[in-house]
Predict the 3D structure of the following.
Amino acid sequence: MSNADIALMAHLMRRAGFGATRDELEQLVEQGYENVVENLINPGDPGVMPDDVIRRYHSEMAEMRELNSAGAYWMYRMVTTRNQLEEKLALFWHGLFATGYSKLNQASALVNQINTFRRHSLGSYKTMLVELSKDPAMIIWLDNHDNHHDNINENYGRELLELFSMGVGNYTEDDIKECARAFTGWTLGNVEYMSTRASRDSIWPYSRINWHFNYRDYDHDDGEKTFLGHTGNFNGEDIIDIIVQQEATARFICTRLFQFFAADEVDEAGESVINDMMASYFDSEYEIRSVMRTMFNSDYFRSEEARFARVKGPVELVVGAVRMAGTYQEPTFGADQLARQTMYMGQGIFQPPSVEGWHEGAEWIDSGALVERVNFVGKELGDPGNPGVKAIIDRMARQGQGILSPEEQVAACADLLGPLELSESTATSIREFASEQGPADLRDGSRTEADEQRIANLLRLLTATREYQLA
Amino acid sequence: MTTTNKQRSLVVIQLAGANDPLNTVIPYADGHYYDFRPNVGIPTDQVIPLDGQLGLNPNMAPIKALWDEGKVAIVNGIGYPNPTRSHFRSMDIWHTCEPEKIATEGWLGRVIRDLDPAGQNVITGVNFGRGLPRSMGASGVPVASVGNLETYGLFPDVEEERIRGLCLDAFGKMYGGSIQDAVMDYLGQTGRDALKGADILRTAPEQYSSAVEYAENPIAQSLKNVAQVMTADLGTRIYYTQHGSFDTHGDEVKVHGGLWTQVSGAISDFLADLDEHGRGDDAIVLVWTEFGRRIRDNGTGTDHGSGGTAFIIGNPVNGGFYGQYPSLAERDHLDGDLHWNNDFRSTYSTIADKWLGLDPVPIVNGQFEQWDFVGN
């Protein structure tokens, strides 16, 4: 097993998931890169505790109507799932179809929405858009319940075209109106009551009732519509059928997936990968699974240039650190704190700043957020008592004679945390720090707490680097 | 006024969870109040009268003392058009000054940018609390978010002082090297800003001493931190903190009263502290909350409503009532709530323009009539 294989697999797992420990990477390399990609895009049992058991034994997560418990629940899923891509994609869709608690006051509707994303993540984009249009949280969020036969509300129709499929410049204002007409009657059961509760009240004092999609035939405008040059008595499904056939839609969704999974910035080589992804989109009748396969298996994605070309988002950073530190296994209150941590860093789960989602890339970082990032990850990976940190120290003990010089410590820590690629100036600063601490004797019998702490201190410092902020 | 607005600062206290205006500034002479508040009304003989109509909650004696000195402006009936009763949405509206659309940039972020356009001082704005309040968020505007001033900075969990020092040294070097890459350079700049901000802020508690003894509660400790930074002359102009939860659906009289005991005491101690350091004329305190509460109580508390009360407190403030107290007569209710009569952006505009000397229009997204609670 070569270092290059490990580095490539580490890259894949940072992008398709939240990263992997060295033990996990070794097992994955055994399976072969393309097999791992197939497993990622064909998820099986996530290996998480079933919802009914969670509700029975973890009462803090039983109340999914509240933001904290819903955020905690999703953090639990992300930290413990076997299907890393499934959760990473759900996070992608949450950013793309950004729906916020602020207008809903009902977090269980958002938990349900994420479940819908999980179900349709890798299938047809057409199905995804139809299901999205029927999603109660989305209907309230973008006011489609106010979109009536005799009085259209354009909000959902506009964002469907602008933010969820083609992007501005590919349709006219008339297309937006016709699109909105086609979605009249797509609403919630008992919508008058539910929407009043959502806009005027909190969960107090009578709590909430679950929402479900309801199609009101009598409130649907069945008249003739002309949309993107097609004419007919279109309903919402017909509109989506036309949308997904557009090259602009293929380019839009493939570019967004590329930017989330491959690189923040699209260069010329990236454009060519996006073109291949678009070809897969049409060849497979809009199947996201095929698009993902094309991207992950591309030479571009596998190349060294593609590595560390993205700034980790707060959720990615927190989940990745916790998975590596092995500090969280069960759905307990701790996950509530994890969800809060991502909020301190600028990404509150279920609280996107607007329908446009989060501004990603370098915009994740400001001075306040950087302090939170460095301190949180440092605490997770700087504690030799944490299982993942202990595993790293044990691995290092098996190297050479078990007594590591400062330079060897730096090299081994950077390797096991990634492998991380350090700039020369970063590496020099860390080696100076390691020299101040001195050698570490990790042999059984002679290893002391101080030896372990030295390694943990190095891990802490490595997670504080600029390089660690990138995926 | 002896100060120039170069030294003037603004301290913002958010009462998170929606403070009940009716039990804060109490219309004790109005029979409707007692009709609608059979369970959570404050008995007339406990109210601290401000005039013949309105009085303060009995737990706000320190505010009354400041009122008597003419240092308290009370803006009654504050709100915005088409009020929402969602905490999050309403907070966003107050944070961003955008009642109609969902926006991301905070009004204080714009204030900080205008106060320090070149971004020369990385701590022009400081938040005391975890996570950045949306009010202060604006692209490219550095803001420090301080949980606890004594331990603020990088690597607070490293117990050994020598190791922490080495970590900080290494951090400075790691973020100092120029790397030929836009993202890495941006990260470097941000890391250096964070380190610099922490270094500067850490000096504040060391220089500080005061005869004022703050209470041991979060809002008092936050305002003590504000006083420490302000008296250290670090150039910080905008301070932010919050206290709560004022979401008093149940057990309101006790919970709400307890919170106001803490807030009132903290503000009073804070202003005394500033006076002791000769800085009392440099600061005003804005106290706001996202909305009011229902006029009719629910048995033990009150549910979400609209129409609130804001306070502006400090030596430079022209004390008194601003805005009309909304009528409690049933025909005047807005959906069972107090009917707001002045836009919160008037209050913001007044502060931005008359206190900080900034053009308020881009800050609050529009032209709003201003109050006279501070002079120019």
